[in-house]
Amino acid sequence: MSDAFAEALQETLAEVAQDRPVLEFDDVELSFAGVKALGGVTFEVRPKELFAIIGPNGAGKTSIFNVISGVYRPQKGSVRFLGEPILGKQPHEIAAMGLSRTFQNIELFENLTVIDNLMLGRHQHVRYGVFSALVYAGRARGEEVVHRGVVEDIIDFLEIEQYRKFPVGLLPYGIQKRVELGRALALEPKLLLLDEPVAGMNLEETEDMARFILDIRDELDIAMILVEHDMGLVMDLADRVLVQDFGLAIATGAPSEIQRNPDVIRAYLGEEHRSSVGVTATARDRATGDTP
To answer: What are the distances in angstroms from CA 81 to CA 68, 84, 177, 288?
Structure first.
């Protein structure tokens, strides 16, 4: 990776203390019209960690993301991001602290190019408004050059150079998912929320995305929370896994522990969990090129 993005990200991540959790989600309860979506859920995400949340539909996975990002405010509990309480903050305020998110359903501007979509992800780092840009045109242009350099680095990182000037709406689905990931990275996140990043992808696209997720953790040192239905992918990539069932956290641990947990097997993975894990048991290996 070239210098612009690496240097910007290094400066951003220098603010992340390595001796405390990036995120603390403590005893959170969330209800809608008397129906409990989250029942006292507690977990933490550590620096540089890939933390996964799994569970059947309705288990509360998306509710957790919406609480973290400021869309929902729970009735009980606390959430701290980088040691600071964030419940009650608006989504844009939390994003400005260094939280970025991708969505299961792609949310991009289809008529804009890849570059322009990623440049929109730099909005938190733009110092000049419209008036300032008119008064200090030279400085504003210089700032745009810096931001464009960061965006070009992200494009190289995600291997989408050939699509950089294409309108996003004309691109294959798997490439659009990379663009959305790139826009999330353009924020220089301290914590990245990945909402089903391989949903709807074919095998090749899934393997590519798995490789990029690993690179984000191992090369960029960004902490991530992954929500994903592909159990093989989760078990291969995650450092730790939280299992949700009907709004309750029933287990947290390393993938190997989760696979052996009888409560998890009964509630979610089922008796065929070993085969489902084994189907993509080489996902990490394929992503890193370790398969024969």
So the answer is: 9, 5, 26, 31
User: For residue 125, what are the contacts with CB-CB under 8 A and spacing of at least 6?
Assistant: 8, 147, 187, 188
Q: 203 Cβ partners below 8 Å, 6+ apart?
A: none
Beta bridge partners of 51: 225, 240
Q: Which band of pLDDT confidence, cut at 50, 70 and 90, is reported for residue 277?
A: very low
Give the pLDDT confidence of 55-66 residue by residue, as tens digits: 888 889 999 999
Task: Round to whole Å and give the CA distance between 154 and 3.
Answer: 11
For residue 160 the two structure tokens come to 């989408």
Rg for the chain, CA atoms, rounded: 19
Angle at 236 between CA 235 and CA 237, to 5 degrees: 100
Ranges of each domain in the chain: 3-109+189-288
Residue 216 and residue 210: Cα distance in Å, rounded?
A: 10
Task: Give the residue carrying structure tokens 């809608």.
Answer: 32
Tell me the two tokens of residue 257: 């522990």
* DSSP label at residue 88: T
The answer as to CATH 3.40.47.10 being correct for domain 3-109+189-288 is: no
How far is Cα 43 from Cα 248, in angstroms, rounded to an integer? 12
CA pair distance 25, 41, nearest whole angstrom: 7
Q: What is the dihedral of CA 81, 209, 179, 58, to 10 degrees?
A: -60
Q: Give this prediction's pTM.
A: 0.83
Among 192, 161, 156, 209, CA closest to 6: 156
Indicate left, alpha or beta for 180 from its phi (over 0: left) and psi (-120 to 50: alpha): alpha
